[in-house]
Design goal:
This is Tetratricopeptide repeat protein. By secondary structure, this protein is an all-alpha fold. It contains 13 helices and no strands.
């Protein structure tokens, strides 16, 4: 299945839209979210081709995951290896396996902030939002707050429907790290979740223009533009990061989802009309 990013209106409701955004992202091999972001703890080296992992196809990601899996099998307690392996597994859609890796790492490193943060994100990716929130909050140090953890907590709250609380935390994260594109991107996706696509787009454009913005941020912008029906513009933005075929596949998939949602809305209207009559 093709993917565009998030790393979250025309016509979408919040929860289906988030799932759609995540599906688009995974299909193209672009890391939401949540969260939607550059929030994955543990960096991953670029492939031999020189392309970043975020720009790889699903097949390429599987190859990277296989190589990291071999390294992990030799050193399962090595923090850096576990973080990289879990990150790639999440990006390739193997959320349960990524969670298993991070659960073991959390046992091996029970007080490590990076590990606890990654464990929380793995829980969130598996839909276990309350335990994820606990893990991320446990990783935070109130006297020395980490903006990444603040943003991660906000993304989880967004998933739980606590959008106002999430946006307060995004604001706090931006106070700690002004202009950070991954936080701005997450904030943009928060507005997408509540159907405010104009504010979402404005926030995404600010994120995409910020120094350090990566492929995932720009793909999130393409997603938001496409959700407003401006498919040609969305494809043009996506083509800056992906191959023309991938960009076209993303837009075609998005068109299909929008058409499905329209059809579903029409059916609901017809059903309501019948009941009224």
């Amino acid at each position: 299945m093709p993917q565009m990013s998030v790393n979250r209106q025309t016509i979408f409701t919040a929860k289906p839209l988030l799932r759609a955004g995540l599906a688009l992202m995974l299909a193209a091999g672009v890391a939401a979210c949540s969260q939607t972001s550059r929030e994955t703890t543990g960096s991953i080296a670029p492939a031999a081709s020189g392309r970043s992992v975020e720009q790889m196809s699903s097949a390429e990601l599987q190859g990277v995951a296989q190589r990291l899996g071999q390294s992990y099998a030799k050193q399962p307690s090595d923090k850096a290896t576990a973080l990289r392996y879990a990150a790639v597994l999440q990006m390739s859609g193997s959320t349960e396996q990524a969670l298993a890796v991070m659960r073991k790492s959390a046992i091996d490193h029970p007080k490590d902030r990076d590990v606890l943060a990654a464990y929380g994100k793995a829980l969130a990716a598996d839909g276990q939002f309350e335990p994820a929130l606990q893990a991320v909050r446990r990783a935070q140090t109130p006297e020395y707050p980490d903006w990444r953890l603040v943003s991660a907590e906000a993304a989880i709250l967004d998933q739980l429907g606590q959008n106002n609380e999430a946006r307060n935390l995004y604001t706090r994260a931006l106070e700690l790290k002004p202009g950070e594109p991954s936080v701005l991107s997450n904030l943009g996706m928060s507005y997408v979740l509540t159907g405010d696509l104009k504010t979402a787009e404005a926030t995404m454009r600010k994120a995409a223009a910020a120094p350090g913005a990566d492929s995932r941020v720009r793909q999130n912008l393409a997603l938001v533009v496409g959700l407003q029906g401006r498919f040609a513009e969305a494809e043009a933005i996506a083509s800056q990061e992906l191959s023309p075929d991938q960009a076209q596949a993303n837009v075609a998939y998005l068109r299909g989802m929008l058409a499905q949602q329209n059809a579903w809305n029409d059916l609901k209207k017809e059903d309501k009309a019948r009941k009224t009559n």
